[in-house]
Each structure stands twice: as C-alpha cells, then as structure tokens.
Amino acid sequence: MTTGTSRPPIDTGRPHPARVYDFLLGGKDNYPVDQAVAEHLPAEARAGAFQQRAFMHRATAWLAGEGVDQFLDIGTGIPTAPNLHQIAQGIVPSARVVYCDNDPIVLRHAEALLISSPEGATDYVHADVREPGTIIEAAHEVLDFGRPVALSLLGLLHFLPDAEDPYGIVRTLTATLAPGSYVALSQGASDVNPEGGEQGTEEYGKGGIQLALRTRAEFGRFFEGLGLVEPGLVTAPEWFRSAPAPKPEFSGMYVGVARVR
Ligand SMILES: C[S@@+](CC[C@H](N)C(=O)[O-])C[C@H]1O[C@@H](n2cnc3c(N)ncnc32)[C@H](O)[C@@H]1O
C-alpha cells in the first residue's frame, strides 16, 4: 500500500536532494541538474553518502537485534539495496516498516520498498516531514504506536533550516513514540571541515536548495530529553556498537541513536 499517491511530476529543471544523493551513491536515477551539483561538492561528499548509508545499515541491524520490530523512516531516499526493511526483516522477519519521503522520484520507485517479507509489512507515505501529524496518522495503518518504534531521519535534517523548526518537528515526532522507542538521526556537520561545508552550502544553494549544516552542539540539541546510546554523538564511521570502528575515517556527517524514556 502507498499513501498520498497522486503521482506528482518529476521536475528535471532543478536539482533534488534525493537525486543528488543517488548520484553520489553511483545510482542511475538522477538528471544533469543533479549531477552538476554533485560534481561541484567537496571531495568528501561521495564518501559521506556511503558512510551515511552504512550507518543506516548498522543502526537498523542493532535496533532489530535489540528486538525493535517497528520502523518509521522519514527521508528514505531512492531505493538502494539493501534498504532499511531488508536489513530489519533479515533479523526480525515480522518487522513492520513505514517509509516516507516528499520527493516524487522516490514515490515512483516506492514499489521496491514494498516488497516485504511474508511475515512483516511495509508501507510508503508520500509526505513532507514538515507535516509530522500527517505522517504519524498515515503510519498508524501499519505501526502500533502503543509499542516501541524506531524513528529514523537520516541525511534529512540538513535540508531543514532553523526557520522551518526542525527541532520542533523532531520533538513532535518523538512525542508520539512509546517509551522504549528509539530515534536515529544524522546531520551534515558545519564544524568538521568548515571550508568544505561552505562549498557544499554554496553549490546546493545555486540549485535552490538551502543546506543547513550544524555544529556538533547544534546537532546534540535534537536529542534533548532522550537517552543517547553508546557510542553517543559521533561521526558516521565512528558509530559501532559491538566492535570498535575499524580505522578512523574522516567524515562530515554526525550521527546518533537515542532511546525514548
Ligand atoms: C540524503 S537523502 C538520505 C536518504 C536515506 N535516508 C539514507 O540515509 O540513505 C535525503 C532524503 O530526504 C528527503 N527529504 C528532503 N527534505 C524532505 C522533507 N521536507 N520531507 C520529507 N523528505 C525530505 C529527500 O527527498 C531525500 O530522499
């Protein structure tokens, strides 16, 4: 099932975050306008995309291993196997997953996200995170919010400038989660490589996309009132639960997972 599916048109005249990210990951669902942005991003952007995706894999596997069997993933991106449900259902076959994105191209490819394990369920909601109430209402079809849910917003928060109240949006979403739920977040850093950050902000800006990179402290504010789990708020390649990070790798992407108390 997909919710909110009026099949809006694909705009190839301006870049879209999902398609720029797809290009960085080596995907084929992008257009010259997206490639033009990606090719002018700082050198670490490509590695950052892979690090971000790998963090999603590890965090999801850990959460499923903890017994979480319900997932709400907002800002899903163009399907790139393995997708979140494939990781979660590989560990908990009955896992139920709701995906959400606001990009028409992700909606076009949503079918790949709907091939669930027979024991589990997946759904796709075409909606904007700035309307958290709409997302939660639609997600109720598949998820039981009376039980723990793992909410993920990965690679999305830096597309929400402060004027759009990202902190309030995260608070609204987490307020609907039962104790024992988890929140996994990631965010492009402004204070790891400030020069590269400025270059990235400028390149996205030329394409009409406002990038809101944040400092570690600013990212930390998203977790207020939640219990950060080990290893805390770190860069993506440093987030490992059962083993130490293989070797220190440069990354401009902050990540964290927290428990709802
Ligand atoms: C960089 S991609 C990250 C994809 C995936 N979460 C991952 O970690 O691999 C960011 C995604 O957020 C989506 N996005 C950006 N702004 C959004 C908004 N306001 N509401 C919903 N999705 C949004 C984009 O369309 C894109 O698919």
TrEMBL record:
GO terms for biological process: methylation. It comes from the Bacteria. One of its GO terms (molecular function) is methyltransferase activity. Keywords: Methyltransferase, Transferase. InterPro entries: SAM-dependent_MTases_sf, SAM_dep_MeTrfase_SAV2177_type. It holds the Pfam family Methyltransf_19. This is SAM-dependent methyltransferase. It comes from Streptomyces nitrosporeus. The lineage of its organism: Bacteria, Bacillati, Actinomycetota, Actinomycetes, Kitasatosporales.
